[in-house]
Write a structure and sequence with these properties.
Blueprint: H1 24-35, H2 52-68, E1 73-77, H3 80-90, E2 98-101, H4 107-115, E3 119-122, H5 134-140, E4 145-151, H6 160-169, E5 173-177, E6 185-186, E7 189-190, E8 197-201, E9 214-218, H7 221-231, H8 261-270, H9 274-292, E10 298-300, E11 307-308, E12 314-318, H10 326-340, E13 343-346, H11 357-361, H12 379-387, H13 404-412, E14 413-417, H14 424-439
Parallel strand pairs: 2-3, 2-4, 4-5, 5-8
Antiparallel strand pairs: 1-9, 6-7, 6-11, 8-9, 10-12, 12-14, 13-14
Helix pairs in contact: 1-8, 2-8, 3-4, 3-7, 5-6, 9-14, 10-14
Bound molecules: pyridoxal-5'-phosphate (PLP).
Length: 440
């Protein structure tokens, strides 16, 4: 069978670039971690003796403090999901209260809310940015709302200032989910440094990675100690000596979301690469935006005027009259993407999260004695009914949740995923394919 070679507009053959994320920097640090014959994060190990936990935490704190202009503290966590859970626990989000979340995001944004016995409430997205806004949050906020998790979807920072203004007025904590937005910025500061907590993922798909991992950024020493204790069984790893202090050993609850010296070694090697890696993603994403915005009927995700997206992916919507052609567009994109080693797909997620089985059926936990787990008893609901006797039934029934704009994003959008080996000319191959199929 003859294989057709994809060519660019100058007739040159196109190939997929290689990804080279790891080099001698990672190898040397991993060797140093292994040299200690010990991977426990809190001990010094190896020769020369190094404490990887301290080094990695300080590296994060210095990086984000320097780039945000504000002293921030960092708490490592075993994943991005763990980071969100640590933030909820560390910020003391009360059981039975409501936490506002977007309907289009990774499940890891939302599941920690369930496991912290709070109630996720879905707010709609902006039709142009695909992100939460102060207005969409205000529409679903109640006196029972304790927090909002703002997701910078696709690496595009949400407009934080109005969100922070609204939430401060109503005593609502703001958690930024910057899992997809490493290297992105909003008004000159890194995404994830404005809220009460910023949460990041370091899984292998992310701009920088340590295999699996994550971290939380907070401001105050109390929040730091609360998050740290929550991330490690409330073991008081910093040695608070006053038994009456809330930070003292076992004066509170916690799980184990530690990272080991291996992940810290990776993080120490990867963090210095972040700015350069993110700039490469941004260059490709911006080229796609520029090209796609010129194609009639195609509407790229809009970004805040004072934000720079780090394009974890680039997404765009088709105007209503073109939605019926989404499969054709996807097919054309797939052929082009394969030739340059990019990924493509329909919307981010096949459904809004409230339409997934786990939310529709509310089978978050197995309940003893419930045949087929029908109408499972949900701890957050029991607590909420106790503390808010007038709480409406609709809060517990996700089958009644309806976020029209989020649903339109699911029905009409497409996404393009690239990596730091790609360059803007690879984006042109995708844009050409989309332009061609839509001109037929
Ligand atoms: C927006 C968002 N939040 C949270 C997570 C969870 O991160 P992790 O997979 O590291 O648990 C992800 C992961 O892809 C994500 O994209």
């Amino acid at each position: 069978m003859s294989r057709t070679t994809t060519r660019d507009q100058k007739g040159q053959p196109v190939t997929a670039p290689e990804r080279r994320r790891f080099d001698s920097a990672e190898r040397q640090l991993l060797d140093a971690a292994l040299a200690g014959q010990e991977l426990w994060p809190y001990t010094s190990s190896g020769d020369p003796k190094r404490n990887f936990w301290n080094e990695a935490r300080e590296a994060l704190e210095n990086y984000y403090s320097d780039t945000s202009g504000e002293r921030l503290r960092a708490v490592p966590a075993g994943s991005g999901t763990a980071a969100i859970h640590v933030a909820l626990g560390g910020l003391q989000i009360p059981a039975g209260t409501e936490v506002i979340v977007p309907p289009i995001t990774d499940m890891g944004t939302v599941m920690p809310v369930i496991f912290q016995n709070a109630i996720p409430v879905f707010a709609d997205l902006d039709p142009n940015t695909g992100l939460l806004t102060a207005e969409t949050i205000a529409r679903v906020a109640t006196s029972r709302t304790s927090a909002v998790i703002v997701v910078h979807l696709g690496g595009s920072p949400a407009d934080m200032d109005p969100i922070l203004d609204f939430c401060r007025q109503h005593n609502i904590k703001v958690i930024e989910d910057a899992a997809q937005a490493q290297g992105a910025s909003y008004k000159g500061r890194p995404a994830g440094t404005r809220g009460d907590a910023g949460c990041f993922s370091l899984n292998s798909q992310k701009h920088i990675t340590c295999g699996e991992g994550g971290f939380v950024l907070v401001r105050s020493e109390d929040d730091f100690l609360r998050c740290l204790n929550f991330s490690d069984k409330h073991r008081n790893r910093t040695g608070v000596t006053d038994p009456n202090s809330e930070h003292y050993i076992y004066n509170g609850s916690g799980v184990n979301y530690r990272m080991s010296d291996l992940e810290f070694a990776m993080l120490l090697a990867q963090l210095p690469k972040l700015a350069k890696v993110a700039a490469r993603f941004t260059a490709v994403g911006q080229r796609l935006d520029e090209r796609l915005s010129k194609i009639p009927g195609v509407r790229p995700q809009q970004h805040h005027g004072k934000a720079i997206s780090s394009y974890f992916f680039q997404m765009f919507r088709l105007e209503p009259d073109l939605v019926a052609r989404r499969e054709d567009v996807l097919k054309a994109m797939r052929a082009a993407a394969t030739s340059v080693g990019m990924g493509v797909g329909k919307s981010y997620g096949d459904e809004t999260l409230y339409r997934t089985g786990v939310f529709r059926n509310r089978n978050f936990f197995d309940t003893f004695g419930q045949p087929n787990n029908e109408s499972p008893i949900w701890p957050a609901e029991l607590v909420a009914r106790q503390i808010f006797p007038d709480i409406p039934e609709t809060v517990f029934d996700y089958k009644q949740t309806h976020c029209p704009e989020a649903e339109r994003w699911i029905e009409s959008s497409l996404q393009i995923v690239f990596h730091d080996g790609h360059e803007p000319h690879h984006a042109d191959i995708l844009a050409d394919a989309i332009e061609t199929v839509l001109s037929i």
